[in-house]
Design a protein that fits this description.
about 290 residues, alpha/beta, TIM Barrel, 14 helices, binds orotidine-5'-monophosphate
Amino acid sequence: MTAPFGARLAAAMDVYGPLCVGLDPHPGLLRDWGLADDVAGLRAFSHGVLDALAGKVAALKPQSALYERHGAAGVAVLEEVVAAGRRTGTLVIVDAKRGDIGSTMAGYADAYLRDGSPLAGDALTVSPYLGFGSLTPAVEAAAASGRGLFVLALTSNPEGASVQHATGPDGTAVAAAVAAQAAALNAAELASTGGTLGSVGLVVGATTGDAAQRLGVDLEAVRGPLLAPGVGAQGAGVPELARVFGTARHAVLASSSRAVLAAGPDRASLLAAAQNAAREAAGALR
Ligand SMILES: O=C(O)c1cc(=O)[nH]c(=O)n1[C@@H]1O[C@H](COP(=O)(O)O)[C@@H](O)[C@H]1O
C-alpha cells in the first residue's frame, strides 16, 4: 500500500515548501488568460498550470465547482488534472467540500477516495456540518486507500463564524469539537504508523485572526495538516499565517489561488510566482 497521505504531504512540503496552488478557473481568470469561458478554455488553463507547476510545488487544489459549471465535459477536465497529478507525483487535493448523511457520503467516498476512481486525487475537502460522524465513510475510505481529508473547521469566509464559532451544550465551540475529532483520528493513525503528520487535516483560513485561540481550537493537538486558504486574494499575508497558527505553524499548508494564477498564462512567470509564494510561506512557518 502507498504511504499515508499525511506522510506523503510532509515529504512534499519538505522538498517544495508549504504551499498549495489552487486551480480556480473563474470566468474572469479565463478571460485574463486570453481564454474562452468554455471547456476548451478550461482545458487550456488546466494544462497550462500543470505544465508550469506539476512536479514543482507540494500540492495542487482544483476547485471542483469551477469544473462542474461546464457540465460533464468540465468534470472530464478535472479528471485529467487528477490523472496528471498521479503521473507527475504532485499531490492533488480535490476541493469539492463534500458532506452528506452517512449512506450518501459513502457514494462521495467511492467517487473521490477509492483506488481506480477517475476523480480520486490524493485528498478531498469535506464538510462536517451534517455532524462529524456523517463523514465516517470518507474517513474509512481515505484510511483504506492512503488518501487524506481536509475537514472544514474555521473557514476563511466571514459567514462561517455563525456556525463554527457557536458553542454546543457542553460549552465547546463547534470548531473546537471538529478539531478534537480530527485529532483523535490522527492519534490512532500515528500510533500504528509511527509517523509525525496524520492524514486527517483541517481547513483553517489564514483570515481567521485569533479565532482558534479564542475558541479553544487546539491546532497543535490535531497532528494533521492545516490547509490555510485566504493567502493573497482574500487579504491575508505571510504575517497572518504565524499569528493564526502560532506553535502549530509547522503543520500548515498555505493555499493560494488567484494571487498565483494572476501571474499566468506565461509558464515561467507562473512558476516564479508559485516559488516566491512557497518561499514566503516557508519563511513565515518554519
Ligand atoms: O477549502 C478551501 O480550499 C477553502 C476553504 C476556505 O475556508 N476558504 C476558501 O477560500 N477556500 C477555497 O480557496 C479558494 C480561494 O482561493 P483564493 O483565490 O486564493 O482566495 C477557493 O477555491 C475556495 O473555495
